[in-house]
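Sequence only, no structure available. Ideas?
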Amino acid sequence: MTSQPEPTIFALASAPGRAGVAVVRISGTGAGRVLDFMAGPRPEPRRAVGRAIRHPEGGTVLDRGVVLWFPSPKSFTGEDVVELHLHGGRAVVQAVLAALTVLPGLRLAEPGEFARRAFDAGKLDLAEVEGLADLIDAETEGQRRQALAQATGALSSLYEGWRASVIDALAYVEAGLDFSDEADIGEKTFAEARSIIGVLVSAVNHHLDDGHRGEILREGFRVALTGPPNAGKSSLLNALARRDAAIVSAEAGTTRDVIEVRLDLKGLPVIVSDTAGFREAAGDVEREGMRRSLAVAQAADLVLWLTDATGPRTTMPDELASVADRTLLVLNKVDLFPGGSTPVLPDDMVPLSVKTGEGVADLIERLQVIASERIGHPGETVLTQVRHRRLVELARDSLVAFLDGASDDVELRAEDLRRAADALGRITGRVDVEDVLDQIFGRFCIGK
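Reply:
I predicted one. Tokens follow.
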């Protein structure tokens, strides 16, 4: 019994809305037929050709654009693929999409379905798919470089190299099983396997001991603005964002909820959160605001404790003692000092005046330096996903179990290596990953 072919799918592959050019992608066994009906004859493969785009029923011209034909298997999905490059007006796009629904055997693509078909065809492995999703979402240069490295196979090559080493070691262990009646051979092969895994464990531990740099770059370096009420936190947030992101008022307790702005500091993504001021709360709502402030501070990569130069010196509350090692002290309103001169401050305190702008550029530079030191150099082969980290940790634990386990339990040691190989294989999708596929491909927009 022959299996039915996958339905041919189509979607807008460029951003929705008014644009100069819109791209409609069609993939599947019926893609060539669509091209014949709407913009035939088929051009040479991978050659852009001007065509009138016609309705398949009646031949009405919908647009005059460019078509490309990518016959299987040399396409993104590995299937026959057609791209229609249209004028990007909403009416044009809607007319072409509506015309495609008339043809039998076609349907609108689900989110991530084009990438899913590329994965199924072996065009991309799972780590490369995740890198592609991150590349689409990248907002800064650092994120782009990291995502591009992953999308083009840098992480996959690393993990597949490790997996190959584990399989080599497993072959030595299994050779010892085959010659279990010859003690010398078994001891030598097991020693070879342990030598391979000893080197590998060192590399894996170094990879894991990275301070979560890749994940921070992917998600953003988080900075929490904390301090007593009326210290100028919301004003500083607006200055950093260069817009009125937060309400500024002389009334204490104005900020009740957490407000975030995203910054691009020399290619590094920085997320700054304005939080409620810490003081003896006057009511339930304000206490809830401070509870949220504390949670944001504890989860932040850097905490700014902002105080008012003209008010009483306030120290960080005991609730923030756990973040003292990643706190930067900032003194605001230095323009209001008597005589206009800033007194000598500790080296770990940044003076500024949000009102005049004095010192704000210095604070931004300080934030960029701290974020850069924490993230490292974008583009390095580092862990970027929680899923990857958990699987690498699982592989490391199995490798350590192999090294620490009794050498005479050869079957158990072989199972340790199989578990490590399976964990590494799940990163790239080389072994069963059905439980995570929908989650991963669901991140994509329709048309990718």
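The longest strand covers residues 61-70.
Hope that gets you unstuck.
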